[in-house]
Design a protein that fits this description.
This protein is α/β, with parallel strands linked by helices. It folds into three domains: 2-100, Beta-Lactamase (2-Layer Sandwich), CATH 3.30.450.20; 115-269, 2-Layer Sandwich (Alpha-Beta Plaits); 295-537, TIM Barrel (Alpha-Beta Barrel), CATH 3.20.20. The chain is built from 22 helices and 21 strands. The strands form four sheets. It has an eight-stranded mixed beta barrel with strand order 13-14-16-17-18-19-20-21, surrounded by four helices. Helix 16 (384-395) packs parallel to helix 18. It binds ligand C2E and calcium ion (2 copies). One calcium ion (CA) binds at residues 315, 373, 405, 435.
Length: 545
């Protein structure tokens, strides 16, 4: 507490004030209140005094200085009091250092990512909003860049929490080194970082190239050296968007294809990319209603046993006929369904429809095996094995008549969880096929303890047969590998007699492709099987030469 005249000269003070400023009582008395302030805070003195004169009382925050030179924040309440015709100032000061630390901490928690100490999404959006307004006003260049680390999610599990956090911290440090002080780097979530650059497309490209260079150096985490793929999506104001939301969306659209492709790359947003993204949104919207509207159906593609020529089974393939667009290729709508979480419902429907059909065929005496594709999301459902068991029982279909196809890359991604679930499924007798085999980065070693019944050789290898030596070598290796594993092989996309002859000579068990038949509606399958049987009988064309 300080007591002063209206000129601000200290007349009296208490013990607390002496302690706070570290100045003896007799030297504090007689000094000017203004002397207690830091030079910076002194600049607001006149302003505060004017305020006080008009209001009679004033509470404000400022900075004071101790005798030892240390600054500390204070909250000051000053009151003008009158006594016997004289006016005085009564000033109560409170050291608010602790509260300030607390406030700073709250600010830090609210606006910074705790792992990398980079600004978080909220702060980034705040800065982007300001920058976009400025760019709009005076045409200053502005670019938004999103960075994704495609490998991070795969590595995070095996690395453990501490090491994967160290990886993020290192990534943040490299990012910071590539931008200027006035630019911003933020961590939006997971492995997604964002950059706000006060630069045009050219400048942004320079930063992108520098980033790729820096990220090409291996990272060290958990005592290991790791290569991290780094992809960038870039959007420029105002061509790719004017609002923060539009700019971020455009950058995300540009990033998406780079993320799925192998290798590090940067990609600018283009109108074509925007179009593709809009199409995806359209598909997503319509796909939500497709089931209810009965626009989906399954077609079935025969799988032929190569030595006998018999139809061993069929693969159920989803088909979507949109009321206005007509047929939408599964390669287009299935990935959308996977991204937006619709695949669970679609997969559920496909499994149920396929089993109903299978039971129907079996009742007619057609002993076929039904192959059904399962996507990663479905594999993640803990009750999948039980669910399949119940369905089989309900349809009175023996488990061996059902084959679940899982693509190689899916199996390998969350291999530990997948392994237990796959195992529970194969234990019931359901067959397991690995789809698109040879295209993933798997080693079958990680699949040990799971019984794989079938390896489906990807059609990209079959396409080159028999001339392409490399494809032939890979296909032969897959067949040998399957044999060692006790699994059978199926060649996908067989289109020619030449391919078939090569496959037969190299001991491949099954074939599927347009050489035999395209996927067809259920009603055509029975006819196809009957026709096939009768040709086999009359020509004996399948006897190996
Ligand atoms: P996939 O499982 O690899 O299916 C084989 C694809 O190759 C099918 O394409 C099939 O029509 C096509 N194909 C068959 N024989 C030949 C041939 O001789 N030559 C050529 N060029 N192509 C041939 P489709 O039906 O367009 O399906 C594409 C992908 O969509 C499938 O690839 C599968 O990954 C996915 N898919 C289809 N139905 C389902 C489903 O019910 N659930 C899930 N999760 N995915 C599905
Ligand atoms: Ca398949
Ligand atoms: Ca396939």
């Amino acid at each position: 507490m300080l007591f002063a005249d209206t000129e601000g000269r200290i007349l009296e003070c208490n013990e607390r004030a002496v302690e706070a400023y570290g100045v003896p009582h007799d030297r504090l008395v007689g000094r000017a209140l203004a002397d207690l302030r830091t030079p910076e805070a002194r600049r607001h003195l006149q302003e505060d005094l004017d305020h006080l004169r008009t209001a009679g009382a004033l509470t404000f925050e400022t900075e004071h200085r101790r005798a030892d030179g240390r600054h500390f924040p204070v909250e000051a309440s000053v009151r003008l009091i009158e006594d016997a015709g004289h006016a005085y100032l009564l000033k109560i000061i409170r050291d608010i250092s602790e509260r300030k630390v607390h406030e700073a901490r709250i600010h830090e928690l609210a606006y910074f990512d705790p792992v990398t100490r980079l600004p978080n999404r909220d702060l980034f959006l705040d800065r982007l909003t300001q920058a976009a307004a400025m760019a709009q006003r005076d045409g200053a260049p502005l670019t938004v860049m999103l960075m994704g680390l495609a490998d991070f999610r795969r590595l995070a599990g095996p690395l453990g929490e501490a090491s994967s956090q160290a990886l993020l911290v290192e990534a943040a440090a490299r990012l910071r080194r590539c931008v200027r002080a006035e630019d911003s780097v933020a961590r939006l979530e997971g492995d997604e970082f964002a950059l706000l650059l006060h630069a045009d497309a050219r400048g942004a490209e320079r930063v992108a190239m520098q980033l790729l260079l820096r990220f090409a150096d291996p990272f060290t985490a958990g005592g290991q050296r790791l290569a991290l793929e780094c992809d960038l999506g870039i959007a420029c104001h105002p061509d790719d968007g004017r609002s923060p939301e539009d700019l971020l969306r455009a950058a995300r659209v540009a990033l998406a294809p780079a993320l799925t492709e192998k290798g590090s790359a940067y990609q600018f947003h283009t109108p074509q990319l925007g179009l593709a993204a809009r199409r995806r949104i359209e598909i997503e919207t319509c796909l939500r209603d497709a089931l209810a509207r009965g626009e989906l159906c399954l077609h079935y593609q025969p799988q032929i046993e190569i030595t006998s020529g018999r139809v061993a089974g069929v693969e159920a393939l989803m088909r979507w006929r949109h009321a206005d667009w007509g047929w939408v290729p599964p390669g287009e709508f299935i990935p959308v369904g996977e991204d937006c979480g619709l695949i669970d419902a679609l997969g559920d429907w496909a499994l149920e429809t396929a089993l109903t059909q299978l039971a129907d065929w079996r009742a007619q005496g057609l002993e076929l095996r039904m192959a059904v594709n399962l996507s990663a999301a479905q594999l993640r459902a803990p009750d999948l094995p039980d669910d399949i068991r119940h369905r089989l029982a309900r349809h009175a279909v023996p488990p061996e008549a059902l084959e679940i196809e899982i693509t190689e890359s899916v199996t390998m991604r969350d291999i530990n969880q997948a392994r237990t679930r796959l195992r529970a499924m194969t234990d019931t007798g359901v067959h397991l096929a690995i789809d698109d085999f040879g295209t993933g980065y798997s080693s079958l070693a990680s699949m040990k303890h799971v019984r794989v019944d079938l390896l489906k050789i990807d059609m990209s290898f079959v396409a080159g047969l028999p001339e392409d030596a490399e494809n032939a070598a890979i296909t032969a290796a897959i067949i040998a590998m399957a044999e060692a594993l006790g699994a059978r092989t199926l060649a996908e996309g067989v289109e020619t007699a030449g391919q078939l002859a090569w496959l037969r000579a190299h001991g491949c068990h099954l074939a599927q492709g347009w050489h035999f038949a395209r996927a067809m509606p259920a009603d055509d399958i029975a006819a196809f099987c009957r026709e096939r049987l009768s040709t086999l009988h009359s020509h004996n064309e399948w006897r190996p030469q």
